[in-house]
User: What shape does this take?
Amino acid sequence: MTNIVLIGMAGAGKSTLGVLLAKTLGLSYVDTDLLIQEREGALLQNIIDSHGMDYFMNLEGTVCKELIVQKSVIATGGSVVLSQSAMESLKKDGTVIYLKVPYEEIKRRLSNITTRGIIFKEGQSLRNVYDERVRLYEKYADKIVEFGRCDLEDSISLLIKNLNM
Assistant: This one.
C-alpha cells in the first residue's frame, strides 16, 4: 500500500481527518505542518512573519521532498500545491486525495485566518487564495472527495468509500 496524501485548503479537515483515517486504516500519520514547526521551533505564522512567504514555501517544499514514509496518511499544508516539485515527490509514493470543501464552508471554519499560517500574497483575499488553489488541487489530485457540512464519522466513511477500501 502506498501513502495517502491529503491536500486542500486550510480548514478543509486534512489534519483532523488524517489522524482519524490513519487510526481507522491502521496506518501511520504524518502532518507536514507539524514537521515544519518542529524543524523551525516556531509556529507557522511566526515563520511566515519572521522569514517571509518565499522562505516558508521553500521550507514546505523541502520538508515534503525529504519525507520518506510508507503506509502513512500524510496531511499537508494548504499551500503545498504551489510547489510542483513537492507535489511530484508526494505523488511518487502516494495517492493524492483532494478534500474539496465549498468556499462558504471554508470561510465559516477559518475564524483565525490571521494567525493560522496561511500564505497570502499581498492584496489577496481568502476568496482569491481559494480560487487560485482549487485548480491546483484538482490538477494534482488522484481523487477528489467533496465534503459539505458532514460530521467526522460521515467524513471518514466518505473518504474510505472513495479510497475503495
